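Input (Acyl-protein thioesterase 1):
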Amino acid sequence: MAASVFAPFGVVRPLARHTATVIFLHGLGDSGRGWLGIINQFKEQLPHIKWLLPNAPSRSITANLGFVMPGWFDLRSWDLQDQNEDRAGMLESARMIDQYIQGEVDAGIPPGRIVVGGFSQGGAISLLTALTARGENGVAGGKEGWKLGGVAILSGWTLLQDDFSKMVSPHLTSTPVLMCHGTADNVVPHSLSQKTAKILTDQLNMPALENLTLSMQAPPSGYLLEEGKMGIAGLSFRSYRSSGHEACERTQEDLKEFLKRVLPQ
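Output:
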């Protein structure tokens, strides 16, 4: 069954003058609305940011016995390393996110003030959209590669692994990237994020800023400005002990801190 027309997207308006945008993509079976609780907790500390929450199209998911649900692409198998990927669906979704990015640029927000991120399937599509140059399979900046303010990948993985290194954006090594993943994730195994990190740093020469394993809880004393290298060009890879397929408390705090650093008010 082909994907349906993309559903409307949600918007969380900034509390102050709009100078930056985050485009955040939900996971399989969810919707942008499912992230409103977390985003609303961020608003006061990120008052200048508009959140754009696209909804994935409804499509038949092969791995889920063909049931129709929101998904950025078809999963042919629950083995996420299966090479039988839905290439067409993945590129279709990346083109759609290109259009959302271009819409923000047309409204006056420079690409360097835009972050693309997502959870699970949404994280995988964020990585594909933001860090590749897709030529005829891209729209606007997606053709030659976007120069974004940052990319946030929560419990995601690399799509189109056979082609990814051939599609890499010329801006990959100068883009701040945050990857967050629970070590006990039984949906998207933590090993897939480890593999993605190796692809980005060992094969594609993205600076490896940090590779930390942390508690699920947020730091009780808050962040120090000098803590870590998160938010500069390169990869910050953060793992969370005993966390499953979720955005645990520390993931949320790390995402918020990343956005403060790459999209300062």
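The beta strands are 10-12, 20-25, 49-53, 58-60, 68-70, 114-119, 150-154, 176-182, 208-214, 234-240.
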